[in-house]
Amino acid sequence: MSSDPSFHLFDFHRIFLGDLPWSFTLEVVFRTVVIYLFALLLIRWLSRRAVGQLSLIEFLLVVALGSAVGDPMFYPNVPLLHAMVVMTVIVLLNRGLDLLVTRNDTAERFIEGTPVRLINNGLIDYENLDHLNLNRDELFQYLRLQGVEQLGTVRAVYIEQSGQLSVFRYPAAEGHAGLAIVPPWDWEIPRWLLQGEIVQTTDYLGCARCGYTKQFAAEEPLPACELCGYNTWTDRVRE
């Protein structure tokens, strides 16, 4: 607590208005209207893509503008003209980067990155998944949002520069057995089978890590996954 003798706890004038008079509220309204309309004009000047789909550049624009427009709305010592100059420079920089990305492939790859493959022929690419700091459960969540029930129906999955998933499915007649991700594994925990266990019946099992599926004969001890070397299998497989 402050040692200032003039400080009073629960001083509602200080809490709501600080050291400013009531009349400054009218100036706050005026400042807010000016900055809001100016920001609206700048955003309107940008391409529709910047509003409808946030790339890395547009995301940075939102963060920078959000920081620039707040202070001049209610801080009396922040001139509106300075804030408007900052906002204009931010939008011009954004516009310039947009033009550079459009006309230069190297700049586009450097600034926005490239699509990354997460699933290939029903198998999870863990090297790319780890590179993006995604885990298996997050990937399964995104796939379920795209209507995917089991990995054997998926030919390829890419995460685009925008962060959205592109899912390419096999034709209905070409799908194969794959790990079932519906219902979510958090709801219904799969049965885990470790390397060396003996399966009692002939059945398809899937690697709990990469999704590789294989039919094992009855009384056959389970090996490690021949693709990724993982030592755990599950019977959560759908043909």
Protein model, in words:
This protein is α+β, with helices and mostly antiparallel strands. It is built from eight helices and ten strands. The protein is elongated, with a radius of gyration of 28 Å. The chain starts with 11 loop residues before the first helix and ends with a strand. Mean pLDDT is 83; it is low at 48-52.
Describe the structure concisely.
Helices cover 42% and strands 15% of the residues. The protein is built from eight helices and ten strands.
Report how far the terminal alpha carbons are from each other: 67 Å
Major sheet attributes: 4 strands, antiparallel
Helix vs. strand class: alpha+beta
Work out the number of β strands.
10
Number of helices: 8
With strands numbered from the N-terminus, the spatial order across the biggest sheet is 2-1-3-4
| Radius of gyration, in angstroms, nearest whole number | 28 Å
The general outline is elongated
State the low-pLDDT regions, or none. Answer: 48-52
| Approximate strand percentage | 15-25%
Percentage of residues assigned to helices: 40-55%
Order of helices and strands: HHHHHHEEHHEEEEEEEE
- Provide the residue-averaged pLDDT: 83
